[in-house]
Write a structure and sequence with these properties.
Layout (H helix, E strand, L loop, with lengths): L21 H6 L2 E4 L2 E4 L4 H10 L8 H20 L3 H7 L2 E8 L2 E8 L5 H16 L4 E3 L8 E3 L12 H21 L1
Antiparallel strand pairs: 1-2, 3-4, 5-6
């Protein structure tokens, strides 16, 4: 009789900044750690983690990963360069279908190929953010940070994805520079 071998567990990669809207969370699948640049979406296991973190049901396979990477680049180019063609190409894979349900009117995504659903949802989320306040879509001001956030501060002047990490690093750098200048 053969004993069942335990399946290897997938080690989830800890990402430094979660909780942003879907489009920005997708951008934040790339970050800089003390070990250098990191990318959650290098394989299907990373895709599976991202889908789970965002409560999305979609095939965790290579075609879905390729579609999501296409959307990530399109979103990055839209945010960074105001280049819209790539984002519109992702959006061409689906549409919003209005329906009357038992809970009332509903806007439901209608995406022809399941592999494009997460990519389309992220691109559609960027449209929503863009329609509300595109100037509040920001990249962290720390020079060594590549993370994005949606500025929900009252006056729209937030600069860091996290004050605990990048904000404190910037303050410490300024303090050290000021201290060394005064000692000269």
């Amino acid at each position: 009789m053969l004993a069942a071998c335990p399946l290897p567990s997938v080690v989830l990669v800890p990402r430094p900044h979660l909780g942003e809207p879907l489009a920005l969370d997708l951008l934040n699948t790339r970050w800089i750690s003390p070990d250098g640049p990191q990318d959650l979406l290098t394989d299907v296991d990373g895709l599976r983690q991202w889908l789970a973190e965002n409560a999305l049901t979609a095939p965790a396979d290579e075609p879905t990963l390729r579609a999501l990477l296409t959307a990530r680049e399109a979103i990055a180019n839209t945010v960074r360069d105001r280049s819209f063609d790539e984002l519109n190409a992702v959006l061409d894979h689906g549409r919003v279908r209005r329906r009357l349900t038992a809970d009332g009117p509903a806007d439901l995504p209608d995406v022809g190929q399941a592999r494009w659903l997460p990519a389309w949802l992220a691109a559609d989320d960027l449209l929503r953010l863009w329609g509300v306040a595109p100037e509040r879509i920001k990249q962290c001001a720390h020079p060594n940070c590549v993370l994005y956030f949606y500025d929900t501060s009252k006056n729209g002047t937030r600069r860091w994805h996290s004050m605990l990490t990048c904000g404190n690093r910037a303050k410490a750098t300024r303090h050290y520079a000021k201290k060394t200048r005064s000692e000269d």
